[in-house]
Amino acid sequence: PGAARRRRLAARVALGPADDPRWARPALLALLAATAVLYLWGLGRSGWANAFYSAAAQAGSESWKALFYGSSDAGNSITVDKPPVAMWVMGLSARIFGVSSWSILVPEALAGVASVGLLHAAVRRAFSPAAGLLAGLVLATTPVAVLMFRFNNPDAVLVLLLVGAAYAALRAVEGASGRWLALAGVLVGFAFLTKMMQAFLIVPVLALVYLVVAPTGLGRRVRHVLLAGLALVASAGWYIAVVELVPASARPYIGGSQHNSLLELTLGYNGFGRLTGDEVGSVGGGGAGGRPGGAGQVFGPPANGGGWGETGWGRLFNAEIGGQVAWLLPAALALLVAGLWVTRRAARTDRARAAFLVWGGWLVVTGAVFSQMQGIFHAYYTVALAPAIGALVGMGAVTLWERRREPAAAGTLAVVTGGTVIWCAKLLGRSPDWQPWLRPTVLAVGLAAAVALAGLPWLIRRAEGTGPDRVEGAAGDRAEATRTDAVGGVAAEVSAGADPESAEAASPRSAGADPAGTQGLADPTGPRRTPAGPIPRPRVIGRVRADLAGLTVAGVSLAACLLGPTSYALATADTPHTGALPSAGPSTFGGGRFVRLGGGPGGVPGGFSGQGQAGQGQQGQGQPGQGQQGQGQAGQGQAGQGPWGQGQPGQGQPGLGQGQPGQGGGFSWPGGGTGGLPPGLPGAPPSGGQGGSGFTGGRPGGMGGLLGAPEASADVVALLEENSSAYTWAAATVGSNNAAGYQLAARVPVMAIGGFNGTDPAPTLAQFQEYVADGRIHYFIGGGLSGSGNGGSQEAADIAAWVEENFTATTVDGATLYDLTVPASAGSTGTASTSIAT
Predict the structure, then answer these.
(1) Residue 161 and residue 335: Cα distance in Å, rounded?
(2) Are 140 and 115 in contact (CB under 8 A)?
(3) To 10 degrees, the CA torsion angle through 732, 734, 740, 745?
(4) Considering all CA atoms of the chain, what is the largest pairwise distance in Å, rounded to the nearest integer?
(5) Is 403 domain-assigned?
(6) Least confident among 53-57, 94-98, 110-114, 373-377
(7) Are 325 and 298 in contact (CB under 8 A)?
(8) Cα(562)–Cα(627) distance, rounded to whole angstroms?
(9) Backbone phi and psi for residue 256, each to the nearest 5 degrees, phi listed first
């Protein structure tokens, strides 16, 4: 019996369900294989990708405590500014396979493949294998999805968990199952432990759809929703409880918070602060003072109440976001409306309409929040929209295709196709120098296909012969003909005189409602009916020709609509991505805040010439740093005109800053610029390559460790490794990315003073002095950022100043190190330094 069961399981995996057409399972396996190739090919070229999270994975591979809390280093000084589930995945992989780019990035790619498979399964259950395949294909080829499933930000794991939650909720709706709904709650809870409040955006949608649609009594529906809510709270709350109950002295500081509290991080920096822009300690968004000149290119054009790009309903379609995710967004919205219209007469428990409500609600709610949020917002966040876009395109397109004999359905498909290719051509026009042949090709082929779709009903009638599909039997009774649905691959019984608006097929898959959510479409699982008489051979031939012609038109339409996003997806996969804020698309694509992050050390480039009116910050009076000139090219944009002041672009000279802080703002930028540095704080060492070009200025140069990790030389690594086991931290430096570069190079713990932004009060100056007195830190590495942003802590600046005053600087391959075990001799000043030539 066991062997037979295994054979049946293997057959089901290889061949799929018995009622699927033969092509369905091979097509799914081919889609998953192609997705895996797209997400895995050349993955190691991105190196550590986001070093901020890679360092946490490296720390977790060495310390179980660091893995549990998501610490930035194995010494457990501070955590990353997100909950740890994504770090658990990467850290466990690094423990098993060793710390490498592949061991950190492959789990993200596999999460992408699994997301495509889960989305296919969710859509297929309510519609057809064709709808599921199309949904999975759209998700797999969305440029921002390719980017994030080849990157190590938490978004890849978040998407997988949310797609799983939607699948479980739809299974719950299908059979009024409290267990499936509880599983959805658990998955959302772990999604919360991946990226906090963003996971909750789909919760109201799932709960309301279940309350309305589930085929059981209202009281039972309410109980199931309440139990699912308890499952969500338990799956997310246990970790918060542990962190809050453990004494602060026994765990790392909670990065991103100002008071060492996970609840504060949840509700503030990673919660409501994202909506309102009130994010204490962040270096973006609004603020009381001005900003250094040129910061506009880094943080986006200041407009409509936020420093993170323009808010409003057009945000998802603008120059920064459109090419990431919006290729099929208008089509998804149009097909959502069409799907709800087609299913308007379905029973309350109709599964197809429930699916439209779940995925449509996901898209509308998440898209609305992204459009209006005034806090920290980055283009790659929009990967959370990709599953909903894929599902709606798959469900809506197949629903209309199955009704293609009707002029209204065919006309809707034609309008959607034409509008989509025009929009795609506009997006391609934003990178005119990249593959210029694509734009006219998409327009010509797509518009021709749209015209053919509009004429499809006439083509079908002409191919089959004029008159209704009716065959008279010997008894003279009305007969029913059988046609083959070329898309679904199943024999669908079509009544010769049936009213497509009122006919309902009984099916166990719909709990008494139309299985595909469209009246007039027969159920392939229902009883087979035999025509009362033979079908004339010319009519059979005509139907085959009509089906072939229809398939050709459908294939050309699909190719035209997907050519743009797929080309961007391939360009994304072919481009290495590193740094904190990557973007999808070809390397010449402009319009984003970070055209290609991780460029040369040319300082902050020319700012975006935003037209915001608020704020009159004055130009800083400090002088640029005195260090060696960086090699990156500064941007050519104009000085920022928004609410951060009128300063001039930074000059990109890393080294010892001698100037005073700028008078207009509350944040000091290292490595030159008009704001200068506090006395004695070293600038960032040069890193990366030459800056790229964009629409509004050059690529950002070395941002003092805020956005990109430095590359440590062999001599610096040797110093950090020397006798490192005798110290809790081989080194300390300001900013998590700055620390991550040295930690990953030397594989030793490096304390990230102030966390990601350098604005967390961890450690305080007194704590740092105590660590030094106890001999727990070997070196302090100059560089990184300092000061406060939006009310953050000044501890990092105080620590840097104290080190400079009390220890001697040594320059090794452009990096400034202070040996904290050897205080400066009496009577000498800490500003004296020595250099080691290499």
Answers:
(1) 25
(2) no
(3) -50
(4) 118
(5) no
(6) 373-377
(7) no
(8) 49
(9) 90, -10
The token duo for 355 is 């699916």
Place of tokens 């989305």: 119
CA 386 to chain centroid: 9
Stated pTM of the model: 0.79
Is 590 among the domain residues? no
Asked if pLDDT for residue 661 goes beyond 50, the answer is: no
Burial of 218 (0-12, 13-18, 19+ CB in 10 A): exposed
Which residue in 311, 390, 312, 322 sits closest to 355, CA to CA?
390
Token output for 701: 């140069």
Q: Is 833 helix (H, G, I), strand (E, B) or coil?
A: strand
DSSP state of 549: H
Q: How many CB atoms lie within 10 A of CB 34?
A: 15
Based on its alpha-carbon atoms, the radius of gyration of the chain, rounded to whole angstroms, reads 30
Q: For residue 764, is it within any domain?
A: yes
Q: Are 181 and 227 in contact (CB under 8 A)?
A: yes
Sign of CA dihedral 92, 97, 103, 109: negative
Residues 381 and 369: their CA atoms lie apart, in Å, by 11
Residue 755's domain comprises 648-838
How far apart CA 132 and CA 123 sit, in angstroms, is 5
The string of pLDDT tens digits covering residues 236-288 is 999 999 999 999 999 999 999 999 999 999 998 888 888 887 776 565 443 33
DSSP state of 524: T
Task: Dump pLDDT digits (tens) for 332-346.
Answer: 999 999 999 999 999
Does 370 map to a domain?
Answer: no
Total structural domains in the chain?
Answer: 1
